[in-house]
Design a protein that fits this description.
Length: 503
């Protein structure tokens, strides 16, 4: 079976699997994802690895889980992104993205090893404009949140004049242009389209803005991050409906423009030598389990189960029931171009699944956010393990001491290393790394801020909505041992086993 000469990765941020057509979603229209799915293998047990945005991209681009060692950051000295061995093998690599975290402190060097990159400005936290457009003439909407807490996007959005000015449509247009005009000059190529939509802000121009909510009320483009949101009165039933409708509008708009990329492959008769991978980093709560956003809570099914569609030359469309996770995409990209995997990969190539030479590639997968619960799944059951007692011991391992900036609060930063820091080694590396321990009472990186609710265990086949918690049953001991085995196999920090009561 021929391997592809070209691979296109379409990463849509915060893409909810249960809301798109290929996985049975009927609430919102996604005709182009449906169109891609008609050519693709649909993976049924694909799950997140490290969360949120940048940790997930570290998993994909380096093939190693991030969240067991640090909360958020750029490439480390010992990291080799997939683009490096591909370029050694003569593969042209291109990044087209409007994802602001890739080009700010905490994520600033992921793009550097691509052959070329195109950064589309103006999305979410991108500091693109210092003030709103003073004329507002023709702008689709006024600033959503003026004042000292304005987000960079609240300025940027006033400079958009038409749908084609919004970052998502511009990103897909740039990707389609590269495929049409530059990819034909490459013998082999990898195009990564890292598209921030449908991530918030859920801001769209008409007719998208009114597609699922035709009320005259102002649109809710900045959703809250909250648990028990309706129960605590943080969100009203009407606001919940409007938030969900605004997400749907963003989803349908970016799906529409994604079609431009597929059109180019159609026009070039490229499906015989081009693989297309559609994926995401994680989901986004839109009222499921009475949660909104990405709050500090166990990672239940809306956040953890994610879509994966792979159109592969010579492979008939269908579905795959094998367990897979984000780090597997790194190994798959290397395998697609015949490049050997690194000596210590966390990922497993999906090519044997696609070509029908294997029924499975892994027996477990880990999911988590640094400093919070660690989840393990065997493909059917998912076990969520919280710290035993205090959330300690806990260490951060990094030589690039940074995290996602909060633009409106510039003094809110990652705690710096202190006198307790030591030099240690990462698994498989001789490069010294700063290991900073944290103890109860320390200020932790804000992604670790949460109130733990204990251990949880769900059976995804008998209870797909995860309404019945099986923690405390005989199955918990089995899954706890699976988690301990997985952590040992990955050479995870001993802190992790200790804090989880698995040492």
């Amino acid at each position: 079976m021929n391997r592809p000469r070209h691979v296109v990765v379409l990463l849509l941020d915060s893409l909810n699997r249960h809301l798109i057509g290929p996985y049975g979603g009927a609430e919102f229209d996604t005709p182009n994802l449906d169109r891609l799915a008609a050519r693709s293998v649909r993976f049924e047990r694909h799950v997140t690895g490290s969360l949120p945005c940048m940790p997930a991209r570290h998993d994909l681009l380096t093939g190693s889980l991030d969240f067991l060692w640090r909360p958020w950051g750029s490439l480390e000295l010992w990291d080799e992104p997939v683009t490096v061995p591909l370029r050694r093998a003569g593969v042209t690599t291109m990044l087209v993205s409007d994802h602001p975290h890739l080009f700010e402190t905490g994520g600033e060097n992921y793009h550097c090893e691509f052959t070329a990159w195109d950064y589309v400005r103006g999305h979410e936290g991108d500091p693109w404009r210092t003030a709103p457009d003073p004329s507002w003439l023709g702008a689709p909407a006024l600033p959503a949140r003026p004042g000292p807490l304005a987000f960079p996007y609240d300025h940027s959005r006033t400079w958009f004049r038409a749908e084609g000015d919004f970052p998502g449509p511009r990103t897909m247009a740039a990707a389609a242009d590269w495929l049409a005009r530059q990819a034909p000059h490459a013998e082999r190529s990898l195009l990564v389209v890292d598209e921030f939509d449908p991530h918030e802000p859920f801001d769209t121009p008409e007719p998208w803005a009114s597609r699922y909510d035709d009320s005259p009320d102002p649109k809710v483009i900045w959703p809250p991050y909250a648990t028990d949101a309706l129960a605590r009165g943080i969100v009203s039933p009407e606001d919940a409906r409007r938030i969900r409708a605004a997400y749907g509008a963003k989803l349908s708009m970016i799906d529409h423009h994604l079609g431009r990329v597929l059109d180019v492959i159609d026009e070039r008769d490229g499906w015989d030598d081009t693989a297309v991978v559609a994926c995401t980093d994680h989901g986004h709560y839109l009222g499921e389990l009475d949660r909104f956003g990405k709050p500090g809570a166990p990672l239940n099914w809306p956040m953890r189960r994610i879509p994966l569609l792979v159109a592969w030359p010579g492979v008939a469309p269908g579905s795959c029931d094998a367990l897979t996770t984000t780090v597997d995409l790194h190994a798959t990209l290397l395998d697609a171009f015949g490049v050997p995997a690194p000596d210590r990969p966390h990922g497993r190539s999906l090519v044997p699944l696609l070509e029908g030479t294997a029924a499975g590639v892994r027996e477990w997968a880990l999911t988590g956010v640094w400093g919070r619960e660690v989840h393990v799944t065997d493909g059917r059951r998912t076990y969520c393990r919280a710290p035993e007692g205090d959330n300690a011991p806990l260490s951060m391992w990094s030589n690039r001491w940074s995290t996602m900036p909060i633009h409106a609060l510039p003094d809110v930063r990652l705690p710096m290393p202190d006198h307790r820091a030591t030099l240690d080694r990462m698994p498989g590396s001789d490069i010294p790394v700063i290991r900073q321990p944290f103890q109860p009472g320390d200020l932790l990186p804000y992604w670790a801020a949460t109130r733990f609710s204990g251990h949880h265990l769900w059976d995804g086949e008998e209870d797909p909505e995860e309404a019945r918690d099986l923690a405390g049953t005989a199955a918990e001991a089995e899954l706890a041992e699976l988690l301990r085995t997985a952590l040992v196999e990955l050479e995870a920090p001993g802190d992790q086993l200790s804090r989880l009561g698995l040492a």
